[in-house]
């Protein structure tokens, strides 16, 4: 495990964008695993800049998103589909048929999860996975639990997550209580991982993930067992690391 501590959010975004860009340069048909949330917005902006400056080409790149809320349609501004389109995809030259996001409106959620796993396998797995982290240590929507859920599955969202994510909704009651998320095994099978975090409110989760026991109660702690993971965090998020 490598830990890169940057001065601020901008540097965190630039460092991680360079890693994603290098991946796409080396292997233009890379399979990227993508995250949503506020942390990764700066990273997407940097990648869009590189694309506009003609330094990057996403024509052959394939993507799989980590998760999606159950019950929100693609045109709902709070769906992760809408987020990805409006914060990243519409600004780059990705082929729409190469974009994969779980369908939160699928009639058969179990089947949707199985299909998602099958598609990832069909692409020979994810080359580079981008992760954020929840204040409770979740990755994707793998919430603290008594066991690690292996593959893509339906999750019941933690109260803390519902509260955290309610800032994007007009009313906390509008936050979906369920989501589809890649599982821990799905994430652990990715070839390379970068996890981004910024701000003091993430500092405890980061410390637990890096230095704590490996436990499903802090889902990100499993990353200690991954062979190629880099945490790229700003100084505030590193607050407890050397305490
Ligand atoms: C959401 C997403 C996660 C993300 C996390 C952190 O719940 N499902 O993939 O990492 O929240 O979000 P933020 O970056 O907004 O703090």
Describe this structure in words.
The chain is an alpha/beta fold. It has one domain: Rossmann fold (3-Layer(aba) Sandwich), CATH 3.40.50.1360. 30% of the residues lie in helices and 17% in strands. It has 7 helices and 10 strands. The protein has helices at residues 9-26, 41-52, 80-87, 109-122, 159-165, 184-188, 203-211; strands at residues 2-6, 31-34, 62-65, 67-69, 99-100, 128-131, 153-156, 178-181, 192-197, 229-234. The strands form 2 sheets. A 7-stranded parallel β-sheet has the order 1-10-9-6-2-3-5, with helices on one face. It has a 3-stranded antiparallel β-sheet with strand order 4-8-7, covered by helices on one side. Helix 1 crosses helix 2. It is globular and about 45 Å long. The structure holds 2-amino-2-deoxy-6-O-phosphono-alpha-D-glucopyranose. 2-amino-2-deoxy-6-O-phosphono-alpha-D-glucopyranose binds at residues 35-39, 66-67, 132-134, 140-141, 161, 165.
């Amino acid at each position: 495990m490598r830990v890169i501590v940057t001065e601020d959010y901008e540097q965190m975004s630039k460092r991680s964008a360079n890693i994603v860009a290098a991946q796409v340069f080396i292997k233009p048909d890379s399979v990227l695993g993508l995250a949503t949330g506020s942390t990764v917005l700066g990273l997407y902006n940097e990648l869009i800049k590189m694309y506009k400056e003609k330094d990057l080409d996403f024509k052959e790149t394939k993507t799989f998103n980590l998760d999606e809320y159950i019950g929100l349609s693609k045109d709902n501004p709070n769906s992760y589909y809408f987020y990805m389109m409006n914060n990243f995809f519409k600004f780059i030259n990705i082929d729409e048929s190469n974009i994969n996001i779980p369908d939160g409106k699928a009639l058969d959620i179990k089947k949707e999860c199985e299909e998602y796993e099958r598609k990832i396998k069909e692409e020979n797995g994810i080359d580079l996975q981008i992760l954020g982290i929840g204040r409770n240590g979740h990755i994707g929507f793998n919430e603290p639990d008594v066991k690690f859920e292996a593959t893509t599955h339906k999750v019941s969202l933690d109260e803390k997550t519902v509260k955290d994510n309610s800032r994007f909704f007009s009313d906390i009651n509008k936050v979906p209580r369920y989501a589809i998320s890649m599982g821990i095994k799905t994430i652990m099978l990715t070839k390379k991982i970068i996890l981004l975090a910024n701000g003091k409110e993430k500092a405890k989760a980061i410390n637990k993930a890096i230095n704590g026991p490996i436990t499903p109660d802090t889902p990100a702690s499993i990353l200690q067992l991954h062979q190629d993971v880099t945490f790229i965090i700003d100084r505030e998020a590193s607050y407890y690391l050397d305490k």
